[in-house]
């Protein structure tokens, strides 16, 4: 029962006691006009009306509690469904391996990622971040995941699409939906040749990846590309970088920068410094540390919360 309803019930109880006391001490033969009895009867009717209103409040409280519980259950089911869209097992091919961190700000996330074998020697990685949070953003990222095209069938076999072409098709797929509300997303897609260790990627409005060298220093690997879902026929740049044994590539959503930032801007670089401070740690340990920091950040109601996703591409020392 709500606090307001409990308070009203207490007032009714107190008034009922006073009503009984007043009736017991009322003198006999009082004038009908000024009779306390009439006043008490009026108070009784008002109390009955308040009791009826209180009953209505109780019923509304019960209904609200029922629908809140139902909504919570449905959101939990949606969260489990979204988890099913994530890779169950991360590929490891030769010296190349992957680690990931996925932390929604609420039940469901506006982030989504994938790491997939494309053929015998290529592994693809993908991340999208819908503008906004909650269920609408989650639905959009699930649509983008299904619209992602990484290869096409040709006579006698197939060919892998350049990441720039994959991003262009993804953008057009979103624009063609002609959604009723302005809906945008950032995304990044690329693949690595596990023989040459060459990474090719394209991005649309997404944070540029960070490359950590063997000495623990980081540098940004840039590529040009605008937000998805704004203009049809948009062109996306493409960047190639050859990794060396012992190097790592960090692909992330901007939730990382919010978590380690000052709450007002993204370009603080604090999380990058935290990353370099952990250069001696394994990727899995770094992600565990980041997960703990996210949990502490989200426990503070005064801090801005955002979905956080990280993919770490590792090249083992040979």
Task: Give a short overview.
This protein has helices spanning 3-25, 36-84, 134-147, 163-176, 255-260, 270-277, 283-298; strands spanning 96-103, 111-117, 122-130, 151-154, 157-160, 185-193, 198-204, 210-212, 218-220, 239-242, 248-252, 308-315. Helix 1 (3-25) runs antiparallel to helix 2.
N to C succession of SSEs: HHEEEHEEHEEEEEEHHHE
Q: At the third CATH level, what is the topology name of the largest domain? A: Phosphatase 2c, domain 1
Average of the residue pLDDT scores: 82
Number of strands: 12
> Helix count?
7
Q: How much strand?
A: 15-25%
CATH-defined architecture of the largest domain? 4-Layer Sandwich
**In one word, what is the shape?**
elongated
Q: Low-confidence parts, pLDDT < 50 over ≥5 residues?
A: none
Write down the Rg. Answer: 30 Å
How far the N terminus sits from the C terminus, by CA atoms, comes to 66 Å
- According to CATH, the homologous superfamily of the largest domain is PPM-type phosphatase domain
How are the strands of the biggest sheet laid out side by side? 1-12-11-8-9
How many domain regions?
A: 2
Largest sheet: 5 strands, antiparallel
What is the CATH class name of the largest domain?
A: Alpha Beta
Structural class category: alpha+beta
Query: Helix content range of the residues, please?
Result: 40-55%
């Amino acid at each position: 029962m709500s606090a307001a309803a409990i308070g009203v019930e207490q007032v009714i109880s107190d008034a009922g006691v006073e009503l009984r006391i007043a009736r017991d001490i009322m003198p006999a033969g009082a004038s009908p006009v000024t009779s306390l009895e009439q006043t008490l009867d009026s108070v009784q009717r008002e109390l009955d009306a308040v009791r009826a209103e209180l009953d209505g409040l109780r019923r509304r409280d019960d209904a609200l509690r029922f629908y809140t519980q139902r909504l919570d259950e449905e959101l939990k089911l949606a969260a489990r469904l979204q988890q099913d869209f994530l890779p169950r097992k991360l590929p490891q091919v030769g010296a190349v391996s992957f680690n990931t961190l996925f932390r929604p700000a609420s039940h469901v996330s506006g982030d989504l990622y994938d790491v997939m074998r494309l053929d015998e020697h290529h592994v693809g990685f993908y991340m999208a971040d819908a503008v906004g949070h909650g269920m609408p953003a989650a639905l959009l990222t699930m649509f983008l995941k299904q619209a992602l095209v990484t290869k096409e069938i040709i006579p006698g076999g197939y060919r892998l699409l350049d990441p720039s072409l994959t991003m262009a098709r993804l953008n057009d797929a979103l624009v063609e939906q002609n959604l009723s509300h302005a809906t945008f997303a950032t995304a990044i897609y690329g693949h690595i040749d596990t023989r040459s260790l060459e990474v090719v990627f394209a991005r649309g409005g997404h944070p540029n990846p960070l490359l950590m060298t063997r000495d623990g220093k980081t540098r940004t690997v840039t590529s040009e590309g605008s937000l998805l879902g704004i203009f049809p026929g948009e062109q996306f740049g493409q960047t190639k970088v050859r990794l060396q044994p012992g190097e790592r590539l960090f692909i992330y959503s901007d939730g990382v920068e919010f978590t380690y930032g000052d709450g007002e801007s993204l370009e603080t670089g604090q999380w990058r410094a935290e990353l370099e401070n952990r250069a001696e740690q394994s990727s899995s340990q770094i992600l565990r540390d980041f997960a703990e920091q996210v949990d502490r950040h989200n426990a503070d109601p005064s801090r801005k919360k955002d979905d956080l996703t990280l993919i770490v591409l590792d090249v083992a020392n040979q």
